[in-house]
Amino acid sequence: MIDSILPFAVAHIAIGYGLAYTPSSSKQRPFILALIVVCCLISVRSTVAAYVPAHVANEYIIGMMFHASTLLCLANHSPAPNATRSAKNRWVLNLYLDGRWGVTYIPPFSSKDKAYVPSRRRLILQRLWDITWTCGIIYVMQTYRLNMEMDDYGPPHGRTHWGFHDLTARELVVRLYMFIDGYTIPYCGLRAAHSLVSCIALACGDNPASWPPLFGSIAEAYTVRRWYSVFWHHLMRKAFTLHAAFIVNKIFRIPRSRFSRYMVIIFAFLISALLHILSMPDMEECRAIPQVRFYIRIAGAIFLEDLVMWAYKSATGQSPKATVPVTEGGEKTRSAGKETKPSEPDEDAISLLWRLVGYSWVVFFMSWATSLLTYEIWNCY
Prior knowledge:
- The protein is mainly alpha-helical.
- Helix content is 61%, strand content 0%.
- α1 runs antiparallel to α2, α1 crosses α4 and α2 packs antiparallel against α3 (56-74).
- The longest helix has 35 residues, at 169-203.
- The two termini are 28 Å apart.
């Protein structure tokens, strides 16, 4: 156990030293990053990390490598030159613990009042309740699992199409179960961990405004794009997109355009696939190709959604996700009396019909893609 945990501690010390005590242009930083990568690849094999459900601890360890690369080498962060030692240490702690560093969209505490921030006592009670119900769901889902059979992983279930004419009730249940199980347990694990850390920070006197919700509202996930950009957590978003942009703009030297933005999406999802591959030590061979295919399918779904919305707008002159214009000063422009920013998509502007169509599409696609990922991994074994 010690030989796995010790490298993880060394990695934290290394990133703290690199950020606080080396200049942003220092040639030491690439070597510090190499040390962090080696330490993380060793510590991800820790037996302690395996106890955390849904590989959350493993993914955190591997995610640390990407955050270290982002902070040390891509964003080139460094404290103020005249900062004291204690000020540098506090700066590093605040910077590194902010996993959503630089992300523009952060879920609000209340969907009705975006500026609302609960009191310290209220937020601690809410997060303790979050820990209770999320851990309860994890326990139930891991204790009472669907009775899977080997036939569930073989042909024709591993096919790349649905085949509605011969889709059995069993196959439909299995595919839906794989989607729900594959996302619910990581969701609950991450939310419980975030709630626990936030309770500790709040008890130590941290500002409640510094601990907004980790996830957005699932009601807003009516497209695959919004599933990842609005609902799902953004812990790794900046690290993935900055590395992807570096590959697209600096290595391939693709000019900034709509095409380059889609290439950034592809590479960001490929980097996510790499994280999930490395977070399962001794299983990389069987997980590599399925994970890459899975995230390519997600990127493809996003492109398809954009194409459909563009075609709809071209044919009708209207957009299903139009924004509600507001006058200067944020005045209300609708009889419903809702205030929005000029560029903020209005939730009510999406009709119920479009939302239902979107929910159906997301469930269909995610069930297909998630179950296909599981089939491909199992068939490898």
